[in-house]
Amino acid sequence: MAFELPPLPYPKNALEPHTSAQTLDFHHGKHHQAYVTNLNNLVKGSPMESQSLEELIRASYKDESKVGVFNNAAQVWNHTFFWNCMKPNGGGAPTGNVAQAIDRDLGGLAKFKDDFKAAAVGQCSAAAGPGSSPIAASSRSPGPPMR
Ligand SMILES: [Fe+2]
Fold first, then answer.
1. How far apart are CA 36 and CA 11, in angstroms?
2. pTM reported for the whole predicted model
3. Rounded to an integer, what distance in angstroms lies between the CA atom of residue 36 and that of residue 82?
4. Domain tally, the chain
5. Are both 112 and 79 inside the same structural domain?
6. CA–CA separation, 54 vs 47, rounded Å?
7. Contact 42/68 with Cβ under 8 angstroms?
8. In 11-141, which ranges are continuous DSSP H helix?
9. Which residues surround ligand 1, an ion (CB under 5 A)?
């Protein structure tokens, strides 16, 4: 069964003014769709075609003969996760266990935000080194199914 682009969990203009409908149209409708299309083309006619997205990610992780399958499957998963991490009028400070973990492990919300921004900027420059922030960048993130 072919993979399908999951619909956005909100209308395309729901995140304006932070993210425009045009941005969501391009990022979801073209970029995310391209990963789905590529993945379907890569697994078509093989035993992988019947696996779930999570099974494909696990089965192709660190298998050099399946780098394309891994990259596309993981990006389909990551993008779907990303869309579901946002909502209209969302945001604000975390609460509960997440807030406690940020305070305990990441030096508090302000430091976490600074470290996150630095890691995001660093994604396009140098890799984090020893003694740097616990927030680290990876150019080939496997996504939560591998953790
Ligand atoms: Fe993307």
1. 20
2. 0.75
3. 15
4. 2
5. no
6. 15
7. yes
8. 21-26, 33-43, 53-60, 67-84, 96-106, 109-122
9. 31
Question: pLDDT of 15-32, one tens digit each?
Answer: 999 999 999 999 999 999
Q: 79 C-alpha to center of ligand 1: Å?
A: 6
Q: Residue 36: name the closest of 4, 74, 83 by CA.
A: 4
- Tell how far the Cα of 78 is from the centroid of ligand 1, in angstroms: 9
Tokens 């420059």 belong to 125
Residue 48 lies in a domain: yes
d(C-alpha 84, C-alpha 90), whole Å: 11
Residue position matching structure tokens 């990006």: 75
* DSSP code of residue 77: H
Q: Which domain holds residue 71?
A: 21-85
Give the distance (Å) from ligand 1 centre to CA of residue 26: 9
